[in-house]
UniProtKB/TrEMBL annotation:
Residues 12-110 form the OmpR/PhoB-type domain. This is Transcriptional regulator. Residues 914-933 are annotated as: Disordered. Signal peptide: none annotated. Gene3D superfamilies: P-loop containing nucleotide triphosphate hydrolases, Tetratricopeptide repeat domain, Winged helix-like DNA-binding domain superfamily/Winged helix DNA-binding domain. One of its GO terms (molecular function) is ADP binding. SMART domains: AAA (SM00382), Trans_reg_C (SM00862). Transmembrane segments: none annotated. The keyword DNA-binding applies. It comes from the Bacteria. GO terms for biological process: phosphorelay signal transduction system; regulation of DNA-templated transcription. Keywords: DNA-binding. InterPro entries: AAA+_ATPase, NB-ARC, OmpR/PhoB-type_DNA-bd, P-loop_NTPase, Sig_transdc_resp-reg_C-effctor, TPR-like_helical_dom_sf, WH-like_DNA-bd_sf.
Length: 933
């Protein structure tokens, strides 16, 4: 496959954009001649972007350029892109230089002016190509060339391939190399960071950007994976091997295209599994010459790492026997060889070999028999540990509580004097360091971490260190609360996602016997914004439940946090069709606590949520009460946005009550005030408030007879939601404005486009409610296409899901479509029951927005369903429809009534063979007759 062309500036290549000058060869960035600080990796990415200005570069392409020899996930890329944007002055609302296409990649927007003595273009590999740098990296996997070829072939033929071997043998390294050779789309899931196998589905869903759902999360994962040439890597399965096997079988049974590559110390023993047992590196024979020894992959690895450590090293006759003996002692295990070679900066090969033998004797307590491989690795770790100073030993013990990457400030939280000791551990290859744009992050190798955790537990200081970790994370998340809520993940000042694995560990400790539960409560509340933003709600609610149970058992201990925890329990009701009945109860509990505490913020959050529930259940008269309550509390708020939001809530309520002119005036006033506010979008109420107001405004405009303008407003809101990348707001505007208004206007081609966008968007995001709405609108299209039976099947299936979950916002409108389909099938008795049910609901709930249409359909149903309908009976319903439309100033509904009433005069002969009136197509001069619509 041909690669995309990506600029590769020569050493002296110089480009200018805006006030900036970028010199790739000298790796400098200046603004009007003044230096601009930018990290090395960020500089690589900026060079790549400017070399391809105006082109969309995918995330994978940029990663290949910036990390050619390393496997990283997209989190790393987002961190460096954010650093570039800060350096260039891009803001969240206005991107002058770098823009993101959500889910795809980035484009450099500004015009680039080049000053170069010479520049060349090289092909960046396409999805199935391997960069030359990647091939060179593969070559450093000593003795693995044949293995890589075989595994590559096996992965093409197997849907589950497991690389099995002891710790430290290089399973993950080989897996990365295999995937770098020929597989384009890869999701890497590090299971070593999980404390429980029950979290595997959640972790994979998070990597795939699948929002949480309360039903079958594996089904959501399968939907996203199906049809994609993708490999899911499950790395380090050994501690959750049973759950990993169940998860893989679940996904494979539901799909045909995705494949799995697993690494584990034992097979998953899952159906269809291909197992490859990774052997140790080949060893040299005792008495080999230097040339013969250098043919051994084990010796090649040792010499390569020793050379890197010492700045150059060649195997000599003097060192030969000691190096051969050392490689034999560690039995060719790659990690053990690397740990040993890292000591070559301070020790000779002879001293290394002797020290290692002493370490084995200590471990084996005098046994002369050969050790098992995992014992050999442990001996290597013992040896590495025992040569550390007491301060270094304490440090590596404490740092072992971090799962995955951690930053210097995290190290400072658990260490008394971290600066020198951290760098010392890095230099001794017991920790990995990676330079970021403005700091350095660290990680312990897993084997080292497991070993050090054991030492920490043995020391008796595990709980005290975990307490320090929990305190650090709590403070970090508390300080960053507003940023976590309001900023996009791309604009976060820190990569907060990297703390999730340590957060899990700290919470598990806090709520277990011997932990600190009140500290666990504090950490749970502090982490809520992060867990919501990362869609890790399943495990979040587990911790929330534990925290609430503790506080409920200790009345008045911490009412502020108990309030926030109850609010967290209420969040699932906002978009899932599997809504727990305790959702509103949780918000009500939060409201009562907030009222006692005088907490205006959480009173507004809770009232808003309860109002949303009333509106979703199509109870606008009840919603009006909560809208008044919200306005009353908002008047006491110091945030001017709250008073504007109160107008938006009231305007929406008036629309559903059929008071469209009042609603329109209030919403137009609200939008002007909102745009004038100096503060930005509030995220406490989940949606972009301007878009949400425009949704109802567009609906008001249509009802009031301004159909063309209504569609323009809906389209502009769709475009705006896409531009700001706000997924929930986009789904909302499509479901509540764009789709229904296109249908009501008779613009069926446009409606199909909106419905397709809504279905595709909500399916990939598991937004169940809006996906059901999309299917209901699709059912109406089926009716317009003359397929009433198909319409009924799809409509009733989706309405049943919505009814079960209490989402009845459009129930009466969907019932009007159901009645039309039943009448088309001449099922008039059943149709009458449905329309009467809809009208009864309107009377009891106060819902009136589409009541004129329901009354008109009732009259049309009688006209079509009775052989000789008395004109007085038919006129009664049309007159009631007209009266209702007039009271609402509903010109659009009135035009429908006029069109249909003119066709239902008693002296007219009903013609079944005539065409179909579609919506308000009388405005568009299309063929009309009196068939039921």
């Amino acid at each position: 496959m041909a690669g995309r062309m990506v600029g590769n500036p020569m050493v002296d290549d110089e480009v200018e954009f805006g006030p900036f000058t970028l010199k790739a060869g000298k790796r400098t960035l200046t603004r009007d001649g003044s230096p601009v600080a930018l990290g090395s990796r960020a500089m690589d990415i900026l060079v790549c972007l400017t070399s391809n200005a105006g082109r969309l570069l995918t995330n994978a392409e940029i990663i290949r350029h910036a990390w050619p020899d390393t496997f990283v996930d997209e989190t790393n890329l987002r961190v460096h892109i954010s650093a570039i944007r800060r350096a260039l002055g891009d803001t969240k609302r206005e991107s002058v230089y770098v823009t993101n296409v959500p889910g795809r990649g980035y484009t450099f927007l500004a015009e680039v002016r080049r000053k170069a003595r010479g520049a060349s273009e090289v092909a960046l590999p396409g999805p199935n190509q391997v960069p030359p740098t990647e091939r060179r990296a593969n070559a450093t996997l000593f003795g693995r060339a044949a293995v890589l070829e075989r595994l590559s072939e096996q992965l093409l033929g197997a849907r589950l391939l497991t690389i099995v071997g002891p710790g430290g043998i290089g399973k993950s390294t080989v897996a990365r190399a295999v995937l770098g050779r020929s597989f384009a789309e890869v999701i890497w899931v590090d299971l070593a960071e999980l404390s429980s196998g029950e979290l595997i589905s959640t972790e994979v869903a998070s990597k795939l950007d699948i929002p949480p759902r309360n039903d079958d999360i594996d089904a959501a994962i399968a939907e996203v994976l199906e049809g994609r040439d993708i490999v899911i890597v499950l790395d380090s399965c050994e501690h959750v091997v049973d759950e990993a096997a169940v998860f893989v079988e679940s996904i494979l049974s539901r799909t045909e295209s995705p494949r799995f590559l697993a690494t584990s110390r034992e097979p998953l023993r899952s159906a269809g599994e291909w197992v490859h047992r990774l052997s140790p590196l080949d060893l040299p024979e005792t008495g080999s010459s230097v040339a013969e020894a250098m043919e051994s992959p084990a010796v090649q690895l040792f010499v390569n790492r020793a050379a890197a450590c010492r700045g150059g090293y060649k195997l000599s006759d003097e060192d030969l026997s000691h190096v051969v003996e050392l490689c034999q002692q560690v039995d060719g295990i790659a990690l053990a060889i690397e740990l040993a070679a890292a000591r070559m900066d301070t020790m000779s090969a002879k001293a290394l070999s002797t020290s290692l033998k002493d370490s084995f004797r200590l471990l084996s307590r005098g046994r002369r028999t050969a050790l098992l491989r995992h014992q050999t690795l442990r001996a290597t770790l013992d040896w590495s540990y025992f040569v550390l100073t007491p301060e270094e030993q304490r440090a590596i013990q404490r740092l072992s509580i971090f799962r995955g990457w951690f930053l210097p400030d995290a190290a400072s939280a658990v260490l008394d004097d971290p600066d020198e000791v951290v760098e010392s551990l890095v230099s001794k290859s017991l920790m990995v360091a990676e330079a970021l744009s403005d700091t350095t992050r660290y990680r312990l190798l897993d084997t080292t971490r497991f070993y050090a955790v054991e030492k920490l537990v043995e020391s008796g200081h595990y709980s005290s260190v975990m307490s320090r970790l929990a305190e650090y994370l709590s403070e970090l998340f508390e300080i960053s609360e507003q940023e976590l809520y309001s900023a996009s993940t791309e604009d976060w000042s820190l990569d907060f996602e990297q703390h999730v694995s340590s957060l899990r560990l700290a919470l598990d400790w806090a709520f277990e016997l011997g932990g600190d539960q009140i500290l666990g409560v504090r950490l749970t509340v502090a982490s809520l914004p992060l867990l919501f933003r990362l869609s890790l709600l399943d495990e979040c609610f587990d911790w929330v439940t534990k925290a609430i149970a503790y506080l409920d058992a200790h009345p008045d201990l911490d009412e502020q946090r108990r309030m926030k925890l109850y609010a967290a329990l209420g969040w699932p009701q906002m978009r899932s069709t599997e809504v727990p009945e305790k959702g509103v109860a949780a918000w009500t509990a939060a409201l009562r606590i907030a009222e006692r505490l005088g907490d205006v913020d959480y009173q507004l959050r809770a009232i808003w949520a309860i109002w949303v529930d009333a509106i979703n259940r199509a109870e606008p008269q009840l919603g009006l009460q909560f809208a008044h309550d919200f306005a009353t509390v908002a008047a006491e708020s110091n945030d001017p946005v709250d008073k504007v939001v109160a107008k938006r809530i009231m305007g929406a309520t008036l629309h559903w009550l059929g008071r469209h002119s009042q609603s329109r005036a209030l919403l137009e006033e609200m939008i002007v005030e909102y745009d004038a506010l100096p503060t930005g979008q509030t995220t406490r109420f989940q949606f972009d408030q301007r878009i949400t107001a425009k949704i109802i405004l567009a609906r008001d405009l249509w009802v009031l007879g301004e159909g063309d303008r209504a569609l323009v407003e809906a389209q502009s809101s769709v475009e705006y939601a896409i531009s700001i990348g706000h997924e929930l707001s986009l789904s909302n505007v499509l479901a509540e404005a764009a789709c229904p208004l296109a249908l009501l206007e008779g613009r069926f081609d446009l409606a199909k486009k909106y419905i397709a966008l809504l279905k595709d968007h909500t399916k990939s995001l598991s937004l169940d409610v809006w996906n059901c709405y999309a299917r209901c609108y699709e059912a109406e299209i089926l009716l317009e296409e003359g397929k009433p039976e198909d319409c009924l099947v799809e409509l009733r299936r989706s309405m049943s899901v919505l009814d079960h979950a209490g989402f009845n916002l459009f129930r009466t409108y969907f019932q009007s479509v159901e009645v039309r389909a039943l009448a088309a099938l001449t099922k008039f008795a059943e149709a009458n029951q449905v329309i009467d049910s809809a009208l009864t609901h309107c009377e009891s709930s106060g819902e009136r927005w589409c009541k004129p249409e329901l009354l008109r359909i009732k009259g049309q149903l009688l006209y079509q369903g009775l052989a000789n309908p008395p004109s007085a009976v038919v006129d009664k319903w049309f007159e009631a429809a007209e009266a209702e439309a007039k009271s609402q100033s509903a010109a659009a509904w009135q035009s429908r009534i006029d069109a249909y009433r003119s066709l239902s005069r008693p002296d007219d002969q009903f013609g079944a063979e005539a065409g179909v009136i579609k919506g308000v197509e009388n405005k568009r001069d299309r063929p009309q007759n009196r068939s039921f619509q």
